Amino acid sequence: MASFIQAQNLSLAFRPKNREAVTALTDLNLAVTKGEFVSIVGPSGCGKSTFLNIVLGLIKHDSGTLQFNGTPITGPSQERAMVFQEFGLLPWRTVEGNVELGLELKGTPAAERTRRAAELIKLVGLNGFESHYPHELSGGMKQRVGLARALATEPQVLLMDEPFAALDAQTRDLMQTELLQIWERTKKTVLFVTHSIEEAAYLSDRVIVMTARPGRTKDVLQIDLPRPRDYEMRLTPEFNEIKLRIWEVLKEELNSRAQT
Amino acid sequence: MSAKEYFAEHRRFWIGICSVFVLVCAWELTLTYIFPVNPFFFTKPSLIGTAFLEQIQSAKLWHDLAVSSQAFIWGFSFAVVIGIPLGLVMGWRRRVEYSLDPFLTALYASPLVALAPLFIIIFGVGVTGKAALVFLLAVFPFVFNTFAGVKSTDSLLINVIRSFGGDEKDLYLKVILPSTIPYIIAGARLAIGRGLVGIIVGEFYAASEGIGFAISQAGDTYRLPEMFVGIIILSLIAVVLTELMRKLESTVAPWRASDEVR
Amino acid sequence: MQPKKFFAEHESFILGTGFIVLLLIVWESIPLWYTLPRGMALFFTTPSKIAAAFYELLLNGTIEKHFYVSAIAFLVGLGLSIVVGIPLGLIMGRSRTLEDLLDPYITAANATPRIVFLPLLILWFGIGIWSKILIVFAGAVFPLLINTYVGVKNVNRVLVNVVRSFGANEWQLMKIVVLPNSVPYIIAGLRLAIGRAILGVVVGEFFGSSQGLGYMIASAATNYKVDVVFVGVFIFMALSVILTLAVKQLESRLASWRPETAKTF
Predict the structure, then answer these.
(1) CATH number given to A5-79+156-254
(2) Cβ–Cβ under 8 Å, residues A253 and A212
(3) Residue C103: in which H helix or E strand, if any?
(4) Closest chain B residue by Cα to residue A102
(5) Domain assignment of residue C259, yes or no
(6) Are the beta carbons of B259 and C198 separated by less than 8 Å?
(7) Residues C66 and C97 in one domain
(8) What are the φ and ψ backbone dihedral angles of A43, each rounded to 5 degrees?
(9) Subunits in contact with chain A (3 or more CB pairs closer than 8 Å)
(10) What are the distances in angstroms from CA A193 to CA A50, A83, A200, B204?
C-alpha cells in the first residue's frame, strides 16, 4: 500500500551561530498509511517534535525525502494541521474566534466560518463557551479549542505534539478517550508525539520508537488491540505486555549517551 | 453584601479617601488655630478652595487650560503618528533595529528637556514651540514600547499562524499587532507623563499663557492659593489621564496579570 | 571573504555606529549644500563647532565649575531619594495598611510632573542648591519607592512560607527572602531614578539656579550661543547613557537569577 506520509533517509542538523552543529535527525525512515493513528515515542531530545515540525512544513530538512500523498512537502498546507503542546491560542480572541482562525487564513467566507466553528465547538464538547476567552478556560478546555481549530480546516492529517503533556493526569485520561472518539468519527490520519508509553499504546495502531539523538527509527510495534478502545483496556494483562514490549525497546535508548 | 464585606473589598479606596480627608482637615486646623499662616510662605485648604472657585468662574483658568491642551494635543498626536509606525518598523526589520537602536536609546535616556530653551527660542513662545517639545519628549515611549511589543510576540503564536499557511501580512494583522496593543497603551501612559513635563517646562520658560505659566506667575507674585490651585488641577488631569490609560490597559489585555513598575 | 564575514558577525554594532556617524556627517555638511535663511542661520551650529566650544570651555574651567555644582545637586538628591525611598518601599510592601494610606499621594505625585512644584520650592528655598536638590529628590524617589514595594509584594509566597516554617521572625524574613528577592526591582527602580534625577537637575537649573550645567544651557540659549547649548545637552546625554549602562551592568550581574526581571519601562 502506498504510504500516505513517507519519510526516507531524512536528515536535519541545527546550526546555531557561533556554536557547533547539532544533528537532530539522521536517516530517518518512517511511513504512515491513510487513516492510521501512529504514535512516536523516544527519549528527550531525540528529534520527534522536530520531525513533526518538518512534516508540518515549518522546518526544512537537509537531505532525504519527505512525501505527502506522493508529492514532496515544501511548506505548510491546509492538508496538515497541528495541535500544540502549549495550546497556542490567541489570547485576545474568544473560543469561537480561535477556532475560526484557520478558516480565516484560508479565506472562507464569514457565514461558513461561523457555521463550521459552531459544529466543531460542539464536537469537542465546548458549546456554551463560544464567547469565552482563553484565560477563562482550564487547560483541558484550551486544548479542546486547539483541537477544534486544527479540525476546522478539514485537514487530512492531524499532527499532535505532546498535546496533553501540560494537563493534569485526570484531564489527560479524559482527553485521550475523547480524542479517540473524535478520531473514530472524523477518520483523520494522526501522527502523535508523546513521552508516555501508556498514552502511545492506548491511542495508536502503531508505535514508532526513535533512537536517542541523532534520531532515527529504532523499531515499529503494531498495537493489536481491538477498537473502539476504552479505559478499562488499560488495566488488562495484554495491555501491560504491549507496554512492556515498547519499554524494552525504549529502555536501551534512554541509557545511551546522546540523551539530552 | 454586608457592610463588612463591602469595606473589605474596597478597602484601599476608603482608606485612601480617609487619609486625604484627615490630612486636609489637619492641615486646615493646624494653620488656623495652632500656627498662624504667613501668607507669603504657606496657605491653607480653605484659601485654596476660595481661589479655586474664583478661578473656575473667571475665564482665565479655562483659557489657560485650553492653551496648554492645544499644544499638548498637537505634540502628542504627532508623537503617536510617528512613534508607533517607527516602533513597528524597528520590530519588523532587524537591520532597521540595528541602525536606529543605539541612537534612539541614547536620546531616550537623555534629558531632552535640556533642549527646551533652544526650542522656545527657535519656534517662539507660541503653540509650535511647546508642541515641538511635547513631541520630542512623548515620541520615545511610543517608539520603544511598540518595538518591545513587537519583539515580545509569542513565537508559539507565530508558528500557529504559519502552520495554517499564513503569510507575513496575516502575521502582522492577526498576531503581532493585537499582541502589541497593550504595550502601546503602556507607552501612551508614559508618554503622557513626559509630554506634560514638556508643556510645563515650556511654559515656565517663556510663555504668557497656559497653566504652567499660571503656576509660575502665581509663584512670582506670591499668590500661593492660586499656585496651589494650578498645581492641583494639573495633578488631577495627570492622574485622570494616567489612570484612564491603566484602565484601558487592563481592559484590552485582561490576560496579562502584569504587576509592573509604574 | 574576510570583510563579509566580519560585517555579518558584527552587524548590529556596525549599523548602529554607522548610522550615528552618518547623521553627524550629514549635520556637519548641511551648510555646504544648503544655504540657510538668515533667521535660521542664527540658530544653526555644526558638530565641529560644538566640539570646539566644548574644548574651549573645558580649558577655561567653565565646564568644570558648572559640572561640580550640578553633580552635587544630583548626588545629594539621588542619595536622599535612595535613603528615603528604599526603606519606605520595604515597609510599605509588607504593610498593606500603610500602602493603602499612602497610595493616593503616591499615585498623584507619580503621575504629576514633579517640576510643577519647582515654583513652590523656589518660593520656599530661594534660588539655590536646595530647591534643586529637592526637585531631584522628588523626581527620583518615586521610581525607587514604587519599584521597591512592588518587588517586596511580588516575593514568592512559597519561599516566605518555607523560611517562616523554620521559625523566622519578620526581620529575618526581610533579610533572608524579601530583600534579596527585591533587588532586581530596586535596581530597575534605580535606573529609572537616575534618569529622573538628571531631569530634575536640568530643569532645576533652568529656573532655580545661577550655576550648573543647566544654567549654562539656559543662559547660552538666551545669548544665541547654540553651540554651547549643545555642549551642555551632549554632556547630559553622555552622563545619562554612561550611568544607565552602568546600572544595566549592575542589573545583569545582580539579577541574573531571575527568569524575568521587573518591567524596564
Answers:
(1) 3.40.50.300
(2) yes
(3) helix C96-111
(4) B164
(5) no
(6) no
(7) yes
(8) -65, 165
(9) B
(10) 10, 11, 8, 67
pTM equals 0.83
C15 and B200 in contact by Cβ < 8 A?
A: no
Q: Which amino acid, residue A180?
A: L
In Å, how far is B168's CA from the nearest CA of chain C? 24
**pLDDT value of residue C167:** 77
Residues of A in contact with B165 (CB under 8 A): 75-78, 105-106
pLDDT in tens, A101-128: 989 888 889 999 999 999 999 999 999 9
| Chain B residues touching A77 at Cβ < 8 A | 165
All chains having 3 or more CB pairs closer than 8 angstroms to chain B: A, C
Q: Rounded to the nearest 5°, which phi and psi values hold at A100?
A: -75, -10
**C194 and C143 co-located in one domain:** yes
Q: Which chains reach chain C with 3 or more Cβ–Cβ distances below 8 angstroms?
A: B
Coil vs helix vs strand at A216: coil
Q: Same structural domain for residues C192 and C227?
A: yes
Q: Closest by alpha carbon to B16, among C107, C114, C144, C87? A: C107
Q: How many domains does chain C have?
A: 2
Angle of CA points A195, A8, A21, to nearest 5°: 65
Residues C57 and C8 in one domain: no
| Interchain CB distance below 8 Å, B111 and C198 | yes
Q: Which of B157, B165, B252 sits opposite A90 (nearest CB)?
A: B157
**What residues contact B6, with CB distance under 8 A and at least 6 apart?**
none
Q: Does B222 touch chain C (CB under 8 A)?
A: yes
Q: Which of A159-173, B70-84, B201-215 has the lowest mean pLDDT?
A: B201-215
Is C149 part of any domain? yes
Please state which CATH number belongs to domain B40-252: 1.10.3720.10
Which among B90, B99, B125 is the top mutation candidate for probing chain C, defined by the most C β-carbons within 10 Å of its own β-carbon?
Answer: B99
Note down the domain range covering C222. 46-254
* pLDDT of A227 higher than 70: yes
Residue C194 and residue C119 share a domain: yes
Q: With contact defined as beta carbons under 8 Å apart, do A151 and A120 qualify?
A: yes
- Min Cα separation B41/chain A (Å): 54
Contacts of B134 in chain C (CB under 8 A): none
- Alpha-carbon distance of A191 to A52, in angstroms, equals 8
pLDDT band at B255 (very low <50, low <70, confident <90, very high): low
